Amino acid sequence: MTTNAAGAPRIKDRDRQAILKALRAGVVPRVGLQHIQVGRKAEVAALLNDLQHVSEGGSGIRFVIGRFGAGKSFFLNLVSTVALEKGFLVARADITTDRRLHGSGGQARSLFAELMRNLASKAKPEGGALGPVIERWISEVAHEANGDDASTERLLAERLRPLQDLVSGFDVHTVLTRHLKAVRQGDELTQQAAMRWLRAEYDTKTEARRDLGVRAIIDDAEFYDYLKLFAKLARIMGYKGLLVCIDELVVLSHRLASTRARAANYEAILRMLNDCLQAQVEGLEIVFAGTDECLADKRRGLYSYEALATRLAPNEFAKEDFVDLSGPVIRLKNLTPEDLFVLLMRVRDVFASGDQSKHLLPDDGLHSFIEYSRRTLGEDYFRTPRDTVMRFIGLMNLLEAEPSHDWRAALGQVEKEQVAPTASAEANAEPAPDDDDLVEFNL
């Protein structure tokens, strides 16, 4: 790794631009997280233990809980980056009203399709890795069989035999075999059809049977079954397992208008929770992210579903400074003012591409900016760092564009208005109309 004179790592211009543009917009960068990571040591260690267990054939499930802007999405990205380095496949998606865990109109299939489109590997960390991963593995199987067609098909069938005990395992075998033959024959249409099937993009079984000769498609009813199947397939292909990160869990609790729809989605979560905790799955780690209200609201949140409330209840003996991370729930601790100061120092380093001699703002300026944030954003300015970081990026952009501009004058000219939060399902405090609201109606 290239370093500057002080020994600090240099930051590539591509990573620098990606980090700064994402932070300025209030979103989490997909690259360069190591340059701005602060705190969360215990929480990351807990997920690392989970990944080690999964790599040995186990499974796990976590619920990352924190207030809006507390860094849940950043934490998911950080865990995803670590998982990729350790040899996992990573699938990520956000829940929306049209993409959720349970539905009867294609909502669950849509969520699965989004996960597969965003599938990442170490070679393709930005996503879109499903095709390359499948093609590389099939090529390895063909090479091991010395290129002989019959031997390749027999070896492929032998490798996929463990899938036969799972839902649609035989269909996956059929699709991959058709893909193998299509590659051999140069049939691009069939190759594309196989990828469409694996990405859950077929709407009808008739179309899939016509193109691939399979009688099943990935639909709403088998969403979780196919996650288990793909986790098993990932291990067969030589990966440690599959990490599934699902953000915006608050959509289920505060955006779904139907009590019945919420209960069905919570039941799907319960099934995942039971399977993963009882070691009924191999090679799968699921991480959900949501707000405190999404978890603890006894009327709309996960605690409104009694079975989940029992399993996700906190350790009653974990008080004061003791944090129990052995359970499924990880509550992100608030950043301290010291953590925020270190974060701003690292953002300053990113602006300077890791060269300390090119800092646009001295340490005194950092202290003054933090004091300014405390005055304008309130005493809790460090608890949700998103707004503070967005303001800091704005200040640094000004100093970069006008090197002669005095940072003291800049801090005096910034408007004393809180930065509007970025678009997110969690930012909307108003719940959707609910068919059980009448329980609060009094005559």
Which percent band covers the strand fraction? 5-15%
Shape: globular
Q: Radius of gyration, Cα only, in angstroms?
A: 24 Å
The span between the termini is: 71 Å
What is the string of SSEs from the N terminus onward? HHEHEHHHHHHHEHHEHHEHHHH
Question: Which parts are unreliable, with pLDDT below 50 for 5 consecutive residues or more?
Answer: 415-423, 437-443
Q: How many strand elements?
A: 5
Structural class call reads alpha/beta
The neighbouring-strand order within the major sheet is 2-3-4-1-5
User: How confident overall, as mean pLDDT?
Assistant: 87
Percent helix, as a range, is 40-55%
The biggest sheet amounts to: 5 strands, parallel
Number of helical regions: 18
Structure overview:
The chain is α/β, with parallel strands linked by helices. It folds into 2 domains: about 1-40 and about 335-420, no CATH class; about 40-335, no CATH class. Helices cover about 50% and strands about 5% of the residues. The chain has helices at about 15-25, 40-55, 70-85, 105-115, 130-145, 150-160, 170-185, 190-200, 205-210, 225-235, 250-255, 260-275, 290-295, 305-310, 335-350, 365-375, 385-400, 405-415; strands spanning about 60-65, 90-95, 240-245, 285-290, 330. Strands 2-3-4-1-5 form a 5-stranded parallel beta sheet, sandwiched between helices. Mean pLDDT is about 85; it is low at about 415-425 and about 435-443.
